[in-house]
Amino acid sequence: MTDPTAGTANYLLELGLLKRARRSGWWIAGIRDPESIAEHSWRTSVTGMVIASLEGADPARTAMLCTLHDTPETRIGDIPKIGRDYLTAATPEAITRDQTAGCPEPVATTIRDAITEFEAGETLEAVCARDADKLECLIQAVEYGHQGVSTVGRWIDSSLAALKTASARAIAQEVIDSDPLAWEKTRHQADE
After folding, report:
1. How many CB atoms are closer than 10 A to CB 100?
2. Torsion of CA 39, 40, 42, 47, to 10 degrees
3. Half-sphere exposure at residue 91, Cβ-oriented, CA atoms within 13 angstroms
4. Whose CA is closest to 158, among 174, 134, 129?
């Protein structure tokens, strides 16, 4: 049995890989330096908190599910959708069991339960978290589109089609119809 403090430290150090690992699907879209998995997870967490607030779910629980949802990718990387047609990877639950094996039981249980809940997609919090994952991808695609990348339409379309909650669909449509820098332009107009 390993020292639980060392096991926790090892888990937290492993998560640092997500700050360096890129979201590989964006390479297919022609993005030379795509966002990291950690960057995606951060905005997914905030997006999940917002959706949960609007849908009557627990925003904190939803944000936690979002924060942890891609942590298994430290072991298998970010397999793009097309890659899943050719590869078979261990389940997120199995990877999470391995990742947390050295952690104290309360820590391991919290993380494992969150991954299981997200993957099952049955609780309202998990539905909101899964919508947040897709909505964040849509938001990123819209931003890349405004930067001149013309190949992101299918990411927008597939993300929009996957949304389950009314709140996520409404936000998505507003994002699609908006300028990503509208907030900044509005601020400058108020100063004038």
Report:
1. 22
2. 150
3. 9
4. 134
Tens digits of pLDDT across the chain (192 residues): 468 799 999 999 999 999 999 998 888 888 889 999 999 999 999 999 999 999 999 999 999 999 999 999 999 888 887 888 888 889 999 999 999 999 999 999 999 999 999 999 999 999 999 999 999 999 999 999 999 999 999 999 999 999 999 999 999 999 999 999 888 887 666 666
Amino acid at 39: E
Distances (CA, A) of 122 to 46, 59, 118, 135: 20, 16, 8, 18
Contact 23, 44 (CB under 8 A): no
28 Cβ contact partners less than 8 Å away, ≥ 6 residues apart? 80, 82
Topology of domain 4-191, CATH: Hypothetical protein af1432 (1.10.3210)
Q: What is the DSSP letter of 36?
A: B
Output the six-digit token pair for 112: 């494992």
Type of residue at 151: T
Nearest to 70 by CA among 109, 101, 36, 31: 36
170 Ramachandran zone, left/alpha/beta (phi>0; psi -120 to 50): alpha
Query: Domain extents for the chain?
Result: 4-191
Q: Is 0.85 topped by the overall pTM?
A: yes
Residue with tokens 């108020």: 190
The CA distance from 105 to 30, in Å, is 43
